[in-house]
Design a protein that fits this description.
Blueprint: H1 3-28, H2 34-58, H3 63-89, H4 96-120
Helix pairs in contact: 1-2, 1-4, 2-3, 3-4
């Protein structure tokens, strides 16, 4: 792997970490109710799984393992987007702007992982 590819790899590791961190800070500010607690738990879990699986993909033992991990990253990004949309659409409008921002990042990550898959298969 050349230096530029290696830098991009770690940029995506940082980006997925920042995404999970942003989701955690976003849900932390939501009102505490039974719906937000469950939706937030799901969103935090899925968003953290995106980056964790990307790190695992970078340490893959085979191409097949790499592809499987990237598919999991894409799946978790899609799931994150689902929970984030559910959160911002069921809460007051004051949570919508930040909710849409993290939702958009989940959607972008999904597209990135889809592109990686296409290039890897």
């Amino acid at each position: 792997m050349n230096k530029i590819q290696n830098a991009k790899q770690y940029d995506l590791e940082d980006r997925t970490f920042k995404f999970a961190e942003d989701v955690a800070f976003y849900v932390k500010q939501l009102p505490r109710n039974v719906f937000n607690l469950e939706y937030s738990r799901q969103a935090v879990g899925a968003s953290g799984s995106v980056g964790a699986n990307y790190i695992e993909a970078n340490e893959a033992l085979s191409k097949k393992d790499f592809i499987m991990r990237i598919k999991i990253c894409r799946k978790e990004a899609k799931e994150s987007a689902y929970w984030l949309r559910l959160i911002y659409e069921t809460n007051d409008g004051k949570f919508e702007e930040e909710g849409q921002r993290v939702f958009n990042e989940a959607s972008e990550l999904k597209k990135i992982f889809s592109s990686i898959l296409v290039k890897s298969e």
